[in-house]
Specification:
Structural class: alpha/beta
Radius of gyration: 22 Å
CATH class of the largest domain: Alpha Beta
Shape: globular
Helix content: 40-55%
Strand order of the largest sheet: 3-2-1-4-5-6-7
Order of helices and strands: EHEHEHHHEHEHEHEEHEHEHEHHEHEHHH
Mean pLDDT: 92
Number of helices: 17
Low-confidence stretches: 1-15, 430-437
CATH superfamily of the largest domain: Glycogen Phosphorylase B
Strand content: 15-25%
Distance between the termini: 31 Å
Length: 437
């Protein structure tokens, strides 16, 4: 790849097919949001190139599964310690030096330095974007925002940004987290106003960005495609419940302790099925908590699987858990992607009443148990009701699935359609009558 500024890309009207570069600083398998965007644009007739990173071995293996089922082009930035040692060392050294420099003189920190201190692979992302012509850059994940803006300015083309999280309040108030929040605030302040459009992952996140920076994001929720295979809406047999939860990392501050406490209070038999990479000792700690509370609970663990299969593997359980505790402002504002996966898979849901999840709460009605973060008694009451009345549980599962079919799925005009419309408008295409749309 060349590090020279790329010549101004061809304007969209001089290209037979408009070219869109979709960028994430994460893995393909851990950023399904941008993969869905790439798929939608490719299916609509755009030429699509996706740029992503590769730095964790288990995710790299799953990335290959994602790519096997796609036809858009892909550029990977590898900095795994095991397979790309030189990149690992170079990017790590630059990242540490940049962070030190921004800590020593935060008031005089340049945007270039802030980008390198916030994103370990900022330089590599810019270089990868510049390597091929494009008409539009669309970047998601916080650590790709600055690279998209810089490359777009150098290429003389528009850029769009996706905000899956409220990046300046993702963590709690530790010194390290505060420093990262300061860095991303500087980046956002500089790059968000110049974006041709900005998308955000919930109404609450959109509103928070609007208040902070005076922009008007479009909301594109973390919805998923409806399943083509039949959905199992039958409840489990007997008095117990089969509960399901997934994430990349299984650990504290995700509401799992809340679920264990509730099962103990409800005094019902239950299975807690967890999918993801557990932090060392965490699952034994949950089992110890269950034992100390005398909960009739079995904890069952599964490894991370391909994002292509996430709605399939949640099908057949009773209740999906989205018990966000609100440990940070971002956690309060997020509409959980697991929650939107559960209902496509036909699960009833148990969720906390946070600002980010209220739009879905209003639509789910009897399909959901809603409680305040940490309110184990309210959760226990709902779980016990479903455990003892399987007809009510079956009704809840059906209502959840119907809500997904009615509104909360990727093919809905307010989700996939919103992305295609925004891209078409950015490229000055007539969306309704265009062969590419």
């Amino acid at each position: 790849m060349t590090t020279r500024p790329h010549p101004r890309a061809l304007a969209h009207h001089t290209l037979r097919t408009p070219h869109v570069c979709v960028v994430t600083a994460g893995h393909l398998s851990t950023c399904p949001r941008m993969v869905k965007v790439a798929d939608a644009l490719f299916e609509a007739g755009y030429a699509v190139r996706v740029i992503s990173a590769s730095f964790v071995s288990w995710a790299t293996e799953l990335d290959a599964d994602v790519r096997r089922t796609r036809n858009w082009s892909w550029t990977g930035i590898h900095y795994e310690r095991e397979s790309a040692l030189m990149n690992y060392l170079v990017t790590g050294a630059r990242y540490r030096v940049s962070n030190l420099a921004t800590r020593l003189a935060p008031a005089t920190c340049s945007l270039s330095l802030a980008n390198c201190a916030y994103s370990r692979i900022h330089t590599e992302l810019v270089r990868a974007i510049l390597a091929e012509p494009a008409d539009l850059i669309y970047a998601g994940t916080g650590t790709a925002l600055g690279a998209a803006a810089e490359a777009a300015v150098r290429m003389g083309i528009p850029y769009a940004l996706d905000l899956e999280d409220f990046h300046s309040a993702e963590q709690n108030g530790s010194p390290k987290a505060n420093h990262r929040h300061e860095l991303v605030e500087q980046i956002e302040r500089n790059v968000l106003p110049g974006a041709v459009f900005v998308s955000a992952a919930s109404d609450a996140i959109s509103s928070a960005y609007a208040r902070k920076y005076g922009i008007k994001p479009i909301t594109v929720n973390n919805t998923f495609a409806l399943r083509s295979a039949p959905v199992n809406l039958g409840p489990s047999a007997g008095d117990g419940l089969r509960l399901y939860w997934f994430s990349q990392t299984i650990g504290p501050r995700r509401g799992l302790e809340h679920a264990v406490e509730a099962i103990a209070i409800a005094d019902i038999p239950a299975e807690l099925h967890l999918r993801g990479n557990p932090l060392p000792g965490y699952i034994p700690s949950l089992e110890k908590l269950a034992s100390s509370r005398k909960a009739n609970l079995q904890v069952i663990h599964y490894p991370v699987t391909s994002p292509n299969l996430m709605t399939d593997v949640c099908n057949g359980y009773d209740v999906g858990l989205a018990l966000e505790p609100g440990f940070s402002q971002n956690n309060l504002l997020a509409l959980s992607n697991k929650l939107l996966t559960y209902i496509v898979g036909g699960l009833a849901v148990a969720l906390t009443d946070t600002p980010g999840q209220r739009a879905l709460i209003r639509d789910l009605g009897e399909a959901a148990i809603v409680c305040e973060p940490g309110d184990a008694q309210a959760l226990a009451t709902g779980l016990k009701r479903w455990a003892q009345d399987k007809k009510e549980l079956a009704k809840a599962k059906l209502l959840a699935w119907q809500a997904a079919r009615r509104r909360w799925h990727w093919e809905h005009p307010l989700e996939k359609g919103a992305v295609l419309g925004a891209v078409a408008q950015a490229l000055n295409l007539k969306y309704a009558n265009c062969n590419h749309c």
